[in-house]
Design a protein that fits this description.
Layout: H1 6-10, E1 16-19, H2 29-42, H3 49-67, H4 71-85, H5 92-104, H6 116-125, E2 130-136, H7 139-149, E3 157-161, H8 166-175, E4 183-187, H9 190-200, E5 203-206, E6 226-228
Parallel strand pairs: 1-2, 1-4, 2-3, 4-5, 5-6
Length: 246
């Protein structure tokens, strides 16, 4: 499906538009992938890159229930996996290099992706919707990225959760005094941004990013409350009283 006039009627009752942050408003995953490549180089004396990455993902997955998502959780997993993968033989200075790699993720530029700022301005100028950043991870990190992005003016709030469960989507609607049937979620992860909302009776705009963290991979499907967009610039055309996209 693509954006066209069919969605003007489908989305006519929307009151709240929630935007995912990482890889929807700004690039995030490519920075994590760069860090992982450098990490694999550090651990090269102990095994090939594919083995290092596989072991790291296993450690990350095991840590998620306790540590959640974000740069700090990722850094702890980097260190834990380095010790385990090297069987304790990794040097202290290499562990420090790994910690510095993880800490560098906390100061990413959060430069808006193409057309994001112009699109948000168009939607904001419609004066029809509450707009919120709804993201998972660490509160301070995500808030700081939003400030660095320069997009703060377009949003009524930012809501950061440990994970985007169905209960959290319901809570988000309660915060804005609306019903899930009046929510439109915009994001790049079918698993986190799209499927929970569709299951609850809400609406979703899916904008795939060019790369996806393997933890977010899930089988995708079409749905009458789902629109798939090639770019965020197509979003205003799906909304009633839309102006021409930038």
């Amino acid at each position: 499906m693509s954006s066209d006039s069919r969605y003007l009627q489908v989305f006519s009752d929307i009151q709240l538009i929630a935007f995912d942050a990482d890889d929807t408003l700004w690039d995030n995953q490519t920075h994590f992938e760069r860090v992982e490549r450098e990490y694999c180089d550090i651990l090269a004396p102990f095994g090939p890159a594919d083995a290092v990455s596989k072991a790291l993902f296993s450690v990350e997955s095991a840590n998620m229930p306790l540590l959640g998502y974000g740069c700090k959780a990722f850094t702890l997993s980097l260190v834990e996996n380095a010790v385990k993968f090297s069987k304790g033989r990794i040097a202290a200075n290499d562990l420090l290099r790994i910690v510095e790699l993880g800490k560098a993720l906390l100061s990413l530029p959060a430069t808006p992706l193409p057309h994001v700022a112009d699109t948000l301005r168009i939607v904001r100028d419609m004066r029809k919707y509450k707009m919120v950043v709804f993201t998972k991870g660490e509160m301070l990190d995500q808030q700081n990225k939003l400030v660095r992005s320069g997009l703060t003016e377009f949003f009524d709030d930012i809501v950061v959760v440990a994970d985007k469960t169905r209960d959290e989507y319901v809570r988000l609607c309660h915060i804005f005094d609306t019903d899930i049937s009046r929510l439109l979620m915009v994001g790049n992860s079918f698993k986190s941004d799209i499927e929970p909302v569709l299951q609850l009776g809400g609406y979703a705009a899916y904008i795939p990013f060019h790369t996806t963290w393997r933890h977010e991979l899930v089988e995708e499907y079409d749905h009458h409350r789902l629109v798939r967009l090639a770019s965020i610039r197509e979003l205003p055309a799906c909304l009633p009283a839309a102006r021409q996209t930038p």
